[in-house]
Amino acid sequence: MSGHPQRRKVLGGVVALATAPALARAQRGAEGFPGQPIRLVVPYAPGGTTDLVARLLAQGLGERLGQSIIIENRPGAGATLGSQAVAEARPDGYTLVMSNIASHGISPALYPGLRYDAVRDFAHIALVISNPSVFVANKDFAPADLKQAVAWSKAQPRGLAIATSGAGSTNHLLVVQFGQSTGANVNHVPYRGAGPAMTDVIAGVVPMMADSLPSAAAHIRAGSVRALGMASAARHPAFPDVATFREQGFDLASNSWFGLSAPAGTPAAIIQRLSDETLAVLGTPETRRRFAELGGTPGEMDPAAYTAFVAAEVMRWLPVVRASGATVD
Questions:
Q1: Cα(42)–Cα(198) distance, integer angstroms
Q2: Cis bond leading into 34, ω under 30°?
Q3: Among 187, 216, 179, 214, which residue's Cα sits nearest to residue 201?
């Protein structure tokens, strides 16, 4: 009889014997990790928030792990090219990606032919930082605030060009929503990263940019660009003199996030080790000080929480992208 206690005992032993090798393999996968340098893919060009945060994290994480963290910039297609490369990499913990709101939140809705699943094809490790967006302008750009920028755009036959780090970013959607809600005549100009976009804003190639605060912070402080508006719910403590969009009459807010992820199938013990060490780095006074200077808030999500967060973001942005009418340029 299938319910016989002795039969259940034998079957239980068989299951235990079958499960033991898999468990042992997972445990062995974490033994001695890391035994070589780790490659951290940044799916944008150097100089933007993703790159800046990755380099700050790599220093502390490398010290804790006792191995070098090598940054590899692989920009293109709204951060999806580098992310796809990691999704297809060997799941051994030695190839990671700075997952972000563009590659793992917005792009699944914006790119119909996306070749990875933002949740299923990754083992998500930890949320690293979140921060608001900011509109900045070339220091010689005539408008002094957002209302003047709207009026200026309407007076120009070609409208107002606003750069971003690329299609699919939260700043891309912010530019689209800014034009829709204000009636401004705006043209989105996508770059392969915030660094190249900021270089052109400073040079006057494009007059304005929507950027994540960490990558814009140093340029604002240096006076290389002027901040016209912060897309946060309240004035940011790092930049108390910059008025919010809402203070200027525009009911818009935008927040970006950046995290750490690995290919799906990476041993759970390795993911947990990377998460524990990442959260330890984020909890240090030095990291918190640097993030505060950049206008960012350290993340505090473990693998389970960050995985649930990414899944929720994918669902949250789907109707937003559709309603905005945003398309890949």
A1: 18
A2: yes
A3: 216
pTM, whole model, 2 decimals? Answer: 0.82
pLDDT tens digits for 21-77? 444 444 455 789 999 999 999 999 998 899 999 999 999 999 999 999 999 999 988
- What the chain holds in terms of domains, given with CATH numbers, is 37-130+256-324 (3.40.190.150), 132-248 (3.40.190.10)
Q: What is the 3-state secondary structure (H, E, C) of the chain?
A: CCCCHHHHHHHHHHHHHHHHHHHHHHHHHHCCCCCCCEEEEECCCCCCHHHHHHHHHHHHHHHHHCCCEEEEECCCCCCHHHHHHHHCCCCCCCEEEEEEHHHHHHHHHHCCCCCCCCCCCEEEEEEEEEEEEEEEEECCCCCCCHHHHHHHHHHCCCCEEEEECCCCCHHHHHHHHHHHHHCCCEEEEECCCHHHHHHHHHHCCCCEEEEEHHHHHHHHHHCCEEEEEECCCCCCCCCCCCCECHHHCCCCCCEEEEEEEEECCCCHHHHHHHHHHHHHHHCCHHHHHHHHHHCCEECCCCHHHHHHHHHHHHHHHHHHHHHHCCCCC
Across 167-176, 246-255, 299-308, 317-326, least confident range: 317-326
Q: Which two tokens stand for residue 8?
A: 């259940």
As a dihedral over the C-alpha atoms of residue 132, residue 101, residue 112, residue 321, rounded to 10 degrees, the angle is -30
End-to-end CA distance of the chain: 66
- Listed in sequence order, the residues at least 6 apart from 108 whose beta carbon sits closer than 8 Å to its beta carbon are 114, 117, 118, 314, 317, 318
pLDDT digits (tens, 9 = 90+) for 192-234: 899 999 999 999 999 999 999 999 999 999 999 999 999 999 9
